[in-house]
C-alpha cells in the first residue's frame, strides 16, 4: 500500500491562453455583426409581412416560416457561445406538432412556443448590440495596429505647412518625434487593453444571446438535474438505511439475543453448577466483545472518525490497511491539509465510493490486486478504483454499484464503470469539490 501526491499536467502559459482568448473573442464579435444583419433583416421582413398578411390566409404560414428561419440563426449563435462564455452547448427542446396534425395546426405550432418568440426577440435585439460592440472592437484593433506601427509609415504621410497633428494640438510639438511618440503610446495602450476590450464586448454580446437563446433551457435542465439529485439522494439514503438495518439484524442483534440467552442460562447454572456458569459467562463476555467490534465496524461505515479528524488520505489509508487483497493507494495528500479538503459531503461521498467499491472487489471480483486513485482536477474530485478481477460489473438495477451511483448523483457527480467480461474493472467517480444546492 502506497500513498503519494498525484502529479498534475502543466497548464498552458498565461500569455498563450490570453492570445487564444483574444482571437476567440475578436472572431466572435467581428463575425457577429454580419450574422446580426442577416437575422435582423429576416426578422423585420418576415414579421412585418406576416402582420400585413394576417387579414388573409397567408399571415400564419409566413410567421411560421419566419420563426423557423430565425431558429436556424439562433442555432448558429448557440454553436458560437461556448467558445466565449465557456458554457456547455445547450439547445432548447422546441414544441413539435402532433402526429397527424392539420396544416393550420402545424403552422400555429411555432407561434405557441415561447422559445421561438425569444429567438425572434434575439434577432431584433442583437443588431444594435452587435453594431456597438463591432464598432468598439474594430476601432480598438485599428488603434493598436496603426499606433504600434506608426513609426514605420510616418514619413509616408504628407503634411502641409498649415496642417497640425494631434501632438501639436496637445502642445507636444509638430515634429515627427512628437507624432511618433504620441501615436505609438496610444497604440501601446490600445494593444495592452485590447484583450480586456475584446473580452468585455464578447461578454456583453454573448450574455444577451445566452439569456434569450439558452436561459429557459438552462433553467429547465437545472430543475431536471436537481430533481434527479434529490431522487438519487433519497434512494441512496434509503438503501443505506436498509443495509444498516440488515447488518444490525444479521450481526449485533443476533449476538445480543445470544448474549441474553447465555446470561439467562448462567443465572440458572449459578446455584447448581458454578463452573458451568463461569464458562457460560466467559462465552457471554466474548459475545459482548464481538458485538462491540461489529458495532465499531458499522460506525466506521457510517462516519469514520478518522475521516472527520484527519481527512480523506488518512481515512483511505486506514481503509486500505484493512483490505483483504493488496491495495495500491495514490491519494493527493493536499486533500487532507487545512484549506485543501473538499466539502464534507463530497469527502464523505468519496470515502463511501472507495469503501463500497473495495467491498465489491473483495466479494465478487476474484481480484489479486487493486489500485485506488484520488486526485483533485481543478474544481472536480476524481476517484478511481481499478482491479484485475473477472469483470462483469455494471450499473444495472439490483447490483451493488447502484447505491454508489445514487450517492454520486446526489452531490452532482457522475459514475462510470468499465468492466468487460474477463476484466479488468475500472470504476470512476467524478465529483464536484462543492456539491450544488437542492
Strand-pairing-aware structural class: alpha+beta
Helix content: 55-70%
What's the gyration radius in Å? 35 Å
Strand content: 5-15%
> H/E series, N to C?
HHHHHHHHHHHHEHEEHEE
Please tell me about this protein's structure.
The model is unreliable at about 1-10 (pLDDT under 50). The protein has helices at about 15-50, 60-85, 105-110, 115-150, 150-155, 165-170, 175-215, 215-250, 250-270, 275-300, 305-310, 310-320, 345-365, 400-410, and strands at about 325-330, 370-375, 380-385, 415-420, 425-430. It is about 65% helix and about 10% strand. α8 (about 215-250) crosses α14. With about 450 residues, the protein is an alpha+beta fold. The protein has a five-stranded mixed sheet. It starts with 13 loop residues before the first helix and ends in a 6-residue tail after the last strand.
